[in-house]
Amino acid sequence: MTADAPRPPLPHRTRALLLGVVVPLVVTAAAWALVASWLPRLPDRVALHWGTGGVADRFGSVADLVTVTGVSAGSASSCWRFSP
Fold first, then answer.
1. 35 in any annotated domain
2. Secondary structure string (H, E, C) spanning 38-76
3. Which of 80, 76, 64 is nearest to 27 (CA)?
4. Cα separation of the two ends of the chain
5. What span, in angstroms and rounded, lies between the C-alpha atoms of 63 and 46?
6. What is the CA radius of gyration of the chain?
7. Which site in 8, 15, 24, 65 is 20 to 30 Å from 55, CA atoms measured?
8. How many CB atoms lie within 10 A of CB 54?
9. 3-state class of 32 per DSSP?
10. How confident is the model at residue 10, as a pLDDT?
11. β-bridge partners, 60
């Protein structure tokens, strides 16, 4: 193979893009839409994390909830950028 010849695409690349970027972004958008629809009924403090016993062990504001889901989706999406 010469240096100028393009490399063939990896066969798993489309699947990795779908499962690693598209699905997390769609799930995050759905979560944000759900939170937006529930916003008038949500209390000032909402549960952000549940422990192994099913009991909430971290609380925060709705803004914290939206930020946590955004950071999670962003982390998954940024992994795609740095993959070989």
1. no
2. HHHHCCCCEEEEECCCCCEEEEECHHHHHHHHHHHHHHH
3. 76
4. 19
5. 10
6. 19
7. 24
8. 6
9. helix
10. 66
11. 46
1-31 pLDDT tens trace: 556 777 776 677 777 777 777 887 888 889 8
The sign of the CA dihedral 19, 83, 73, 59 is positive
Inter-residue contact 56 to 70 (CB < 8 Å): no
Residue 68 domain flag: yes
Domain presence at residue 24: no
Determine the Cα–Cα distance for residues 64 and 75; give it in Å rounded to an integer: 16
Q: How many domains does the chain have?
A: 1
Task: Reduce the DSSP state of residue 8 to 3 states and report it.
Answer: coil
Structural domain including 53 reads 44-84
Model pLDDT, residue 58: 92
Q: What share of the chain is helix, strand, coil (3-state, %, to 5)?
A: 60, 10, 30
